[in-house]
Design brief:
The chain is an alpha/beta fold. It folds into two domains: 3-165, NAD(P)-binding Rossmann-like Domain (Rossmann fold), CATH 3.40.50.720; 178-206 and 237-276 and 292-319, Alpha-Beta Complex (UDP-galactose 4-epimerase, domain 1). The protein is built from eleven helices and 13 strands. The chain has helices at 12-23, 59-69, 83-88, 90-97, 99-115, 137-156, 178-190, 211-223, 240-250, 280-286, 294-311; strands spanning 3-7, 27-32, 50-53, 73-76, 120-126, 160-165, 168-169, 197-199, 205-206, 209-210, 230-232, 238-239, 260-262. Helix 1 links the parallel strand 1 (3-7) and strand 2. Helix 5 (99-115) packs parallel to helix 6 (137-156). The two termini are 22 Å apart. The mean pLDDT is 93.
């Protein structure tokens, strides 16, 4: 049985990836933040995963875990993944999003030297780290991590790749993110739990896809014959206004109208207005394309938020996948 080490396994991507790996017969060891509660509702998604509380900023502990597990593959998903939050905590963002990659590479090189084990490394990169957007603390940290991966590949022949992930969402996304803030807000307004929703710049354009599909691209990248850095996205962009309107329609509310208040305090210090993936490299190399469309994704997220509010059940495996999509 192959073994995968997944950092940040209790996050959105970690949960979908761990379930996919387990379904394929791979043993999964995952890191969670220290203090991860024994009654955390996300545990229901992680059945069979060997969980290890670990702060990825502790490089020595991270390297020791790699040595103990001796994995066949490592997926580094642990990160402070909010661009907005990175402006508030730039030093923590660098320590969490960039420095651990150095320790993972060192640990994998030691694993090779001492045990002859050639493990593969997937680094969750971001479209935010490329082009004109690379000026937030989040983007700079991700770009630094990408460079570590490239050096490991060029200088040490380590099978290490970056998946340049465009925005990908699911009902597991935290309400700290604007996408889930909108779907949750639409559900609350529809059920009479609130009257308005405060948002920032609605002209932002992003390539939004379904996280449950993107983890399959991660797996395919590590299984490929040669290490390739690839953009992962749908190739189609929508504005935040589009997402807002689709969410309100899915909640049965019609046009947002005066239920939405624009708050200047929610504007980022820097915000690039457009990101769109080129899906062709991943299609050519991996045979992977995103199948879940924008409308279906937003409608699914709203439906789950409505069910959460009505039922009082915060997490359920039934929330994971849009109707008609095989989990």
């Amino acid at each position: 049985m192959r073994t995968a080490l997944v950092t940040g396994v209790a996050g959105q991507d970690g949960i979908y990836l761990a379930r996919s790996l387990r379904g394929a017969g791979t043993a999964v060891v995952g890191t969670v933040a220290p203090g991860f509660a024994a009654d955390d509702p996300r545990l229901g998604y992680l059945d069979g995963v060997d969980l290890h509380p670990l702060d990825v900023r502790d490089g020595a502990a991270l390297e020791a875990l790699v040595a103990a597990v001796a994995p066949d593959e490592v997926y580094n998903l642990a990160a402070l993944s909010s661009v907005g939050r990175s402006w508030e905590e730039p030093e923590r963002t660098a320590a969490t999003n960039a420095a651990p990659v150095e320790h993972l590479v060192a640990a994998l090189l030691r694993l090779r030297a001492e045990r002859g084990r050639d493990a593969r490394l997937f680094q969750a990169s971001s479209a935010e780290a490329h082009g004109g957007a690379a000026d937030s603390p989040y983007a700079r940290a991700k770009a630094a991590a990408d460079e570590v991966v490239r050096r490991a590949r060029a200088d040490h022949d380590l099978f290490a790749v970056c998946g340049v992930l465009h925005n990908h969402e699911s009902p597991l996304r935290s309400t700290r993110f604007v996408t889930r803030k909108i779907t949750r807000g639409a559900a609350e307004i529809a059920l009479g739990r609130r009257e308005t929703l405060s948002l920032g710049n609605l002209d932002v354009r992003r390539d939004w896809g379904f996280a449950g599909e993107y983890v399959e691209a991660m797996r395919l990248q590590l299984a490929h014959d040669v290490p390739l850095d690839l953009p992962i996205g749908t190739g189609r962009a929508h504005t935040l206004q589009d997402l807002l309107e689709r969410a309100f329609a899915a909640a049965g509310l019609g046009a947002p109208g005066d239920r939405v208040v624009q708050d200047p305090a929610l504007l980022r210090p820097s915000d690039t207005t457009a990101f769109v993936a080129d899906p062709e490299p991943a299609a050519a190399a991996l045979g992977w394309r995103a199948l879940v469309g924008f409308d279906a994704l937003v409608e699914h997220m709203v439906a789950v938020d409505l069910e959460r509010l009505r039922s009082g059940v915060p997490e359920s495996v039934g929330y994971l996948t849009p109707a008609g999509i095989v989990a």
